Amino acid sequence: MKIIHCPVNGPRPLQEFYFGGQFRAVPTSEQEDAMTDAEWSDYAFNRDGSPGIQKEWWYHTPSGTWFIAERDIVTDVFVRTYLFDQADQESGNDG
Amino acid sequence: MNRSERVSTRQSPLQFLAAGAVATNRVVGLADLSLLEKWGAKGPGAASWLAERGVEVPQSIYASRPLPEGGLVVRVGSDEFFLEAGQLDQSLASFGELVPASADFTPVIREDAALRITGRGSLDLFAQTCGHPLQQSPMDQIIFTRVAGVSCGILPQSSGDELQYRVWFDPSYAVYLGEALLQIASELDNAASEPSV
Predict the structure, then answer these.
(1) Among B52, B62, B168, B176, who pairs with B112 as Cys (CB 3.0-4.6 Å)?
(2) Do the Cβ atoms of B146 and A63 come within 8 Å?
(3) What are the tens digits of pLDDT across the range B57-91?
(4) Do the Cβ atoms of B63 and B153 come closer than 8 Å?
(5) Chain B, nearest residue to A64 by Cα
């Protein structure tokens, strides 16, 4: 059973989690005003799938906890997980 | 209408359990506690408001404390609380009406389905339905996990020499989860009553 370390609830089986997609910075209002249609289209529809460690949103369903996971998308190893506002505090990993 | 005139019209989504759930000497006992009054509070002022009403507010997240007249309060977030009344206590029913409009927290209506799972086969029941090792969990600390695929809050408690588990979950899953647990509990009962070869 694959175990993911929730920063609030600790190690839990994968079945308790929901993948929320790649973490991406939301454009500021100033950036939005300056974006072309092509740039908007790229932001809305394209994702970076290059191999390596990717920041992602994950959700622990039973407790309603959204958090960030840094996951190696080649090996599917979770490098670390943390709450959105605790990016500088390492929470844990599943090895 | 004062508190004594209140007449509850609520029905439990788990009422079908009543016929077979209270038998003693079972390997696993399932008791429906869905009709106990529940209430929630969420926001920065929730802890102090509850404390002013005599509620001993748990200091750490996921900890629980008994309420003065039975029941319990669980800290389910940094500023979020879940309260459940005892069997003879209706005081929570009026909590929502006491909250002033200017309060810096939000009262939360809770209609969770609730079970109490007891018996020496409780951990066997969870071993078949839950991926979290409950036998390693501390008492009186709520655990949010899944049971038979349903998101639940589980509170391990000790009652005398026996462990019991309080389980809360969304009432829309009550029939499914109640039937699933009842079936497994029956199988554990049957297995225990079969003569060993």
Answers:
(1) B168
(2) no
(3) 999 999 999 988 889 999 999 999 999 998 776 67
(4) no
(5) B144
- Residue A90: per-residue pLDDT: 56
What superfamily does domain B36-111 belong to in CATH? Answer: Aminomethyltransferase beta-barrel domains (3.30.70.1400)
Q: Which two tokens stand for residue B60?
A: 């750490």
- Exposed/middle/buried for residue B159 (C-beta within 10 Å: 0-12, 13-18, 19+): exposed
Length of chain B: 197
Give the minimum alpha-carbon distance from A10 to chain B in angstroms, rounded to a whole number: 10
User: Is residue A58 scored above 70 in pLDDT?
Assistant: yes
- Cβ contacts of B87 within 8 Å, gap of 6 or more: B36, B70
| Coil/strand/helix, residue B180 | helix
Buried b (16+ CB within 10 A) or exposed e, B66-105: ebeeebbbbbbbebbbbbbbbeebebbeebeeebeeeeeb
Structure tokens at B162: 């026996």
Show residues of chain B in contact with A9, CB under 8 Å. Answer: 143-145
A62/B145 Cβ within 8 A? yes
Query: Does domain A1-21+48-95 bear CATH number 3.30.2270.10?
Result: yes
- CATH number among 3.30.1360.120, 3.40.50.2300, 3.20.20.80, 3.40.1280.10, domain B12-34+112-191: 3.30.1360.120
Q: How far is A5 from chain B (nearest CA, A)?
A: 12
Rounded Cα distance between B4 and B129, Å, is: 41
CA B45, B51, B52, B55 torsion-angle sign: positive
**pLDDT (tens digit, 9 = 90+) per residue, A25-35?**
889 999 999 99
Name residues 53-92 of chain A within 8 A of B (Cβ).
60-64
Question: What is the distance in angstroms between the Cα of A24 and the nearest Cα belonging to chain B?
Answer: 26
